[in-house]
Every structure is written in structure tokens, then in C-alpha cells.
Amino acid sequence: MTRRFDKEFKIHAVKLVVEEGKAVAQTARQLDISPKTLHKWVADYKKDAEHSFVGSGNLKPEDREKRELQKRIRDLEEENAILKKAMSIFAKNQK
């Protein structure tokens, strides 16, 4: 079974390493987590502190915007295909 950690716990663990300068292995042992996991959290935090650990099912703002734009493109392509079919039907009826 996989353990789940909330955002506050992850930030607390990362700050122990980043701000207080504690060793990853020691901090991981104290918090009863894998050092590999803590290394990943630290890397994520350093990459984008403000948007790190967004949570399950949530997206970073730029990822959310990208998904919305992709959906919009799919919708427009579908509308375009429908209009092309309608044009061909009306063109046949004109003859």
C-alpha cells in the first residue's frame, strides 16, 4: 500500500533540507520516508516552489491552460469537420 503525504508535510520536509541545511538521509530517517522520495520532493520544490505539490487530480496553472487549449482545438476541429460535411451536402443539392 502506498502512503500519501499532504502538501504541508512535503513542504515541511523539504524546508528542513533546503532552509535548515539538514541532510536528506537524516531528515528522511526522522520522518520515516524514503531518501529517494525526499530527493524527488526537493528537486520538485527547487524547480517551482510556488506550484510544487499541487495534489492528486490537480494541475499546475500552465498545464491546466495547455489542457484547455488542446480541448478547444479538438472542439474547433470537430466543428470544422461538421461544416465541411454540411457544405458538401448543400453543394450536391445545388446541382
UniProtKB/TrEMBL annotation:
GO terms for biological process: DNA transposition. It comes from the Bacteria. GO terms for molecular function: DNA binding; transposase activity. InterPro entries: Homeodomain-like_sf, RD_transcriptional_regulator, Transposase_8. It holds the Pfam family HTH_Tnp_1. Residues 59-93 form a coiled coil. Keywords: Coiled coil. The keyword Metal-binding does not apply. This is Transposase. It comes from Anoxybacillus kestanbolensis.
